[in-house]
Design brief:
The complex is a heterodimer of chains A (167) and B (361). With 167 residues, chain A is α/β, with parallel strands linked by helices. Chain A has one domain (5-165): Rossmann fold, CATH 3.40.50. Helix content of chain A is 28%, strand content 14%. In chain A, helix 3 links the parallel strand 4 (87-90) and strand 5 (106-109). Chain A is globular, with a radius of gyration of 17 Å. Chain B is α/β, with parallel strands linked by helices and 361 residues long. Chain B has two domains: 2-45 and 89-155, no CATH class; 49-78 and 164-361, Rossmann fold. Chain B is built from 13 helices and eleven strands. Chain B has a six-stranded parallel sheet with strand order 7-6-8-9-10-11, with helices on both faces. A five-stranded parallel sheet of chain B has the order 3-2-1-4-5. The longest helix of chain B is centred in the C-terminal third of the chain and has 36 residues, at 249-284. The radius of gyration of chain B is 23 Å and the shape is elongated. Residues 167-177 and 219-223 of chain B have low confidence and may be disordered. Classes of the chains: A alpha/beta (167), B alpha/beta (361). Chains A and B meet through helix 1 and helix 3 of A and helix 1, helix 4, helix 7 and helix 13 of B.
């Protein structure tokens, strides 16, 4: 029987030498992820799913072989893990955020990097911590239900006449 | 002093614990952490980021390349994806390379790198997917000029086996979300003829089974190699990098010559031959619109150029969340397609403000 609540964490890609939009330094992101791993490891009353970085990333995932009692590294698809999670944590507003919205779970999304490039209409949904320590305190509050969730995004279906494209 | 550069971990690095060690990637950092070795990272020397200044310079760089090699056509701009990755990454690494060796002036350098990275395939090299830019810089600059004090230690590690399923990338994120939107899209077009440029495996098959008029042209239709004469890359292309970023022409030309020559004399001519193939196809089959999911490889560029030449409407189905503003991406996507299918309400505001037609599906 499940005794702990579960948080699903989905990271973004490491850039390596192939990204066309260099706003995250790989080494800075690694250091942040290491801090995050150590922080989550101390939260014994929670289980964590650490989503592996997507296969399309050309950089080796440094967390692939790491072990912790309350952290499970997942190589499954993000969507297949939604059902196993109570809350979702994202540290970069990219495709996983779009997918996570469809899960209709509580989401905390923040960005330590490139906040000046985040579109103004998306910025409302993304927290901008001033440093990694503040990001960890956001997560702490989020785990303890003390974090005020920003407006929830909904996918909206609003069809119009497709034929106007070819007229 | 000795300088130890670690691209791949090897136990012999423990013998150099007291020397200056630089880790080049997250896995190297992780392995050094696990072994209790203190290290530096290249970003501590400074990091180049793609800011607005870069984007405006990059446009002028494209114009220089076009002017000298394609007589002022927009070919490079229309097929900019490979350069969009290659150039900023090269600038970043070249600046870090110069800072590292200027600051430390090492008497001896040992570079630990995987045997795997020696394999050089030009198609992958276009985006530096195999041999890292830093490895190229070290091998063709510092090592060449200081042959007696530079060493490369190849590590015999096994090829990296990624645990993450391929399913997530190719079929799930980029497929299923588009799949849903395509299925919503197709019934509206029951009487129209649509060309899907990119392969969307299952939904195309499903659509055909349901009787929709869908055609695809696959990239497997291999075209012969280019017979273009390689007369090298014009010096002014490298001059503009030196003028703006202070990276000497000698460095740019040694690293970029091979990939830019491939791009100019093999890759783009291949695009043009694909364009001809699509034009021939369009003479035989009339389409009402052509749908793109992305435009990053030669046959997709060729399809795009042919579509524009014939004047067929283009539709772009965007996957994921468009949270970041990138002027180059905007120009090569939003500036050129006639209609957008975007995934969320959040994506539409930027489209409205630019006067782009859109649909949220």
């Amino acid at each position: 029987m499940k005794s702990c609540k579960t948080l699903l964490y989905a990271p973004t890609l490491y850039a390596g030498d192939v990204s066309g939009f260099n706003i995250i330094s790989d080494s800075a992101y690694y250091l942040w992820q290491s801090m995050l791993w150590n922080f989550l490891e101390t939260k014994k009353d929670w289980d964590f799913i650490w989503k592996g970085i997507p296969r399309s990333c050309h950089v080796e995932d440094p967390f692939q072989n790491k072990k912790a009692k309350n952290i499970r590294y997942s190589s499954n698809s993000l969507k297949s893990e939604f059902g196993n999670a109570d809350k979702i944590l994202l540290d970069f507003p990219s495709t996983p955020l779009y997918e996570a919205i469809t899960a209709e779970k509580e989401i905390l999304c923040f960005s330590l990097f490139g906040s000046e490039f985040i579109r103004s209409n998306v910025r409302d949904r993304v927290s901008i911590p001033k440093d990694p320590d503040q990001a960890l305190s956001f997560i702490d509050h989020f785990l303890n239900d003390r974090y005020k969730i920003k407006q929830k995004s909904k996918l909206k279906k609003n069809n119009i006449d497709w034929k106007k494209i070819v007229m | 002093m000795k300088l130890i550069i670690v691209e791949n971990f090897h136990p012999d690095i423990l013998d150099y614990k007291n020397e200056t060690i630089f880790a080049l990637n997250p896995k190297a950092c992780s392995d050094l952490d696990d072994n209790g070795v203190f290290y530096n990272v290249l970003d501590s020397l400074g990091s180049f980021t793609t800011d607005n200044k870069f984007f405006s310079w990059f446009e002028s760089f494209i114009k220089v390349l076009q002017f000298h090699h394609f007589k002022n056509t927009d070919l490079v701009f229309d097929c900019v994806a490979p350069l969009h990755s290659m150039i900023p990454n090269f600038i970043n690494r070249a600046l870090q390379y110069e800072a590292l060796f200027d600051n430390h002036k090492p008497e001896e350098v040992i570079y630990f790198v995987s045997q795997q990275s020696r394999i050089r395939e030009i198609t992958q090299e276009l985006e530096f997917k195999r041999m890292s830019i830093f490895h190229l810089l070290y091998s063709s600059m510092w090592k060449m000029e200081n042959p007696n004090s530079c060493f490369i230690r190849y590590t015999n590690d096994k090829p990296y086996k990624r645990l993450t399923s391929r399913f997530r990338d190719t079929k799930y994120i980029r497929g299923v979300l588009d799949y849903i939107r395509c299925l919503e899209f197709l019934p509206k077009y029951r009487k129209e003829n649509i060309l899907f440029v990119n392969r969307i495996p299952n939904e195309i098959r499903d659509a055909k089974l349901k009787g929709y008029g869908v055609n695809i042209i696959t990239p497997e239709s291999y075209l012969p190699q280019s017979s273009e004469k390689n007369s090298g890359i014009h010096n002014s292309v490298y001059q503009t990098i030196e003028d703006n970023y202070g990276i000497p022409i000698k460095i740019s030309s040694r690293i970029l010559d091979r990939v830019l020559e491939y791009y100019v004399y093999q890759y783009l001519p291949l695009v043009l031959r694909y364009k001809e193939a699509y034009l021939n196809h369009f003479r035989q089959v009339k389409y009402d619109c052509v749908v793109f999911r992305h435009r990053t490889v030669p046959y997709q560029f060729g399809a795009y150029l042919a579509t524009k030449e014939v004047g067929i409407k283009t539709v772009y189905i965007r996957h994921g969340w468009d949270a970041f503003y990138n002027p180059i991406t905007y120009k090569v996507r939003r500036g050129v397609y006639d209609y957008f299918v975007c995934p969320t309400e959040d994506s539409k505001e930027s489209l409205i403000s630019k006067g782009v037609d859109y649909e949220v599906l």
